[in-house]
Design goal:
The complex is a heterodimer of chains A (56) and B (326). Helix content of chain A is 70%, strand content 0%. With 56 residues, chain A is mainly alpha-helical. In chain B, strand 1 and strand 2 form a beta hairpin. In chain B, helix 5 runs antiparallel to helix 6 (122-136) and helix 10 runs parallel beside helix 15. The chains are: A mainly alpha (56), B alpha/beta (326). The interface between A and B is medium-sized, with 20 and 15 residues.
Chain lengths: 56, 326
């Protein structure tokens, strides 16, 4: 998040598919292997946490 | 780390509850987008659907807010808006938000919950409030010059804490005919008017057994009454009372003067356009509903309003008249 170029690239993705493709490619450049399934699970967990904010 | 484009959206306590344990802040990426939604949570809900925010969440210790406050102090608030609820406060905030020079934060959950959290020591709360207000008051497009905050209606119960943190910021309290407000809440209750939600039931000064057996009319009337009472008790040299009947003209008249703002004729024209529409549903035209609400006033509503709200409403009217504001 301190890398403004990286932030600009990530925040400009207009669809989830576009973002996932970008994140997987950027991860690979950095030696991190990510899959669409992995990213989908993260997005789902984040959404669940956002809804659950009302529960406490 | 700089936090340009990020906004705090939630306070989280890791520990046994609000005010206990360690406090953290959840952030959301908003970029340079302005707050134009009638409510902060609505704007954040939309932002949370963006691909980036769906994938990346960001949580920091609350000290990060302090660091951001020191590194990039936000605009100083020009005015605070408190209200009785269902009394035109969203109209006022939307008229202000219509002008690109204004940053308007309307009922931001993290700010309201922080102000109302009773278990946080007052000194820490004042400091955290200043941090939070600063983080939300960052210039979004760069051209903003004024910053206004509308709080959720029960937050006026925390008026002393807010005044302690911001002793020189002008504030207003908006209110309306008690029966009309009560009817509105019976049609569609706000969370604060439902027992146990938002408003601490202890604020009603009644035993819990009594609270749980109250009718909907009585509970809502007692909450609204406490809200009005808090405004009357907190009235000071920075405060001003505004009756719904003074809207919309007061937005560019008395309210603007109290906030130290002078709107140009063009700006007033933009605000007047907003007043033609329903503030909470801007795609719909505004229709005065006082008459229809008065037709719905039941005996129970009349009695509850008379007993729990009207004495405080009358005091607000007395204070407004005594202030001699035309």
């Amino acid at each position: 998040m301190e890398d403004s170029g990286l932030m600009r690239a990530l925040t400009s993705a207009e669809t989830e598919a576009e973002l996932f493709t970008l994140v997987i490619a950027l991860g690979r450049e950095r030696g991190i292997e990510l899959t669409v399934a992995h990213l989908e699970e993260i997005a789902r967990a984040n959404r669940r946490a956002w809804f659950e904010r009302w529960l406490f | 780390m700089r936090r340009d484009g990020w906004v705090p959206i939630r306070l989280v306590w890791k520990g046994s509850g609000v005010g206990e344990g360690e406090a953290f802040v959840d952030w959301c990426w908003l970029g340079g987008e302005r707050f134009i939604d009638p409510f902060f949570d609505g704007a954040i809900e939309i932002a949370q659907r963006r691909p980036f925010n769906r994938l990346f969440t960001h949580r920091t210790p609350i000290a990060e807010l302090g660091w951001w406050y020191a590194a990039s102090p936000g605009m100083a608030p020009a005015g605070f808006i408190f209200h009785m609820s269902r009394c035109g406060s969203t109209l006022v905030s939307q008229m202000l938000a219509a002008l690109p020079e204004n940053v308007v934060i309307s009922e931001a959950g993290p700010m309201d919950r922080l102000a109302r959290a009773e278990s946080i020591p007052e000194a820490a709360k004042a400091e955290w409030l200043r941090w939070m207000v600063s983080a939300l008051g960052q210039k979004r497009s760069g051209g903003e010059t004024r910053y206004f905050i509308k709080f959720d209606s029960p937050t006026v119960l925390a008026l002393p804490s807010i005044r302690r943190a911001f002793p020189s910021v002008p504030w207003i309290f908006l209110y309306r005919n008690p029966e009309e407000v009560l009817v509105s809440h019976l049609r569609q209750p706000a969370p604060a008017m439902c027992a146990g939600m938002i408003t601490d039931v202890s604020a009603l000064g009644a035993p819990l057994d009594e609270v749980v057996s109250m009718s909907q009319e009585e509970y809502a009337a007692r909450v609204i009454g406490r809200i009005c009472e808090s405004a009357a008790l907190g009235m000071d040299e920075c405060g001003m009372l505004v009756n719904y009947t003074e809207l919309p003209e007061a937005a560019w008249g008395n309210i603007a003067r109290r906030f130290g703002v002078e709107f140009s004729p063009d700006e007033i024209a933009q605000m007047q356009v907003v007043a033609l529409h329903d503030a909470k549903r801007p795609r719909q035209k505004f229709e005065a509903d006082g008459e229809s609400k008065r037709l719905e006033v039941s005996e129970a509503v009349r009695a509850a309003a008379a007993r729990w709200i009207s004495p405080h409403f009358d005091e607000l009217e007395r204070l407004r008249a005594a202030a001699g504001i035309p």
